Amino acid sequence: MSNERAGSAVWSGGLKEGAGKISTESGAMDGVQYGFHTRFEDGPGTNPEELIGAAHAGCFTMALSGILADAGMTAKHLATTATVTLDKVDGGYAITKVHLNLVATIPGADQKKFDEAALKAKLNCPVSKLLNAEITLDAQLQG
Predict the structure, then answer these.
(1) Which residue from 87, 93, 92, 97 is spatially nearest to 56, judged by alpha carbons?
(2) What angle do CA 29, 33, 34 make, to 5 degrees?
(3) What angle do CA 31, 34, 35 make, to 5 degrees?
(4) What pTM, to 2 d.p., does this model score?
(5) Do 111 and 141 form a contact (C-beta atoms < 8 A)?
(6) 51 by DSSP, 3-state: which?
(7) Which of 17, 58, 121, 133 could form a disulfide with 64 if both were Cys (CB 3.0 to 4.6 A apart)?
(8) Does residue 22 sit in helix, strand or coil?
């Protein structure tokens, strides 16, 4: 089984003064502004690292939900934040780290099985497999 999804970007102007718009095939994002100021400063709009963070958080959380189900657990609530670090490396930039922070509410969950499921999701969600970065995880289980 193969599944393809597309995102697109357009850009006008130079790096610092230019501007772009990012869209997704589904229309969930349609012409959202991005640029130097949204990436390296505090300007309005989005940036690639923020989008990667959202994608990674979503992918990890969905994977975890499936792994939990296989272990006989059903989450009442899973909330994940993925913090993406962009560093200057060798005269350029690289995404060097992603930190996943998960807060889970799973009534009756076994802590050991939860920890195993969270680690398995971190290692095996497709976005984790894509990234060439250190991926860390804090997973907190609430009753």
Answers:
(1) 97
(2) 110
(3) 145
(4) 0.92
(5) yes
(6) helix
(7) 121
(8) strand
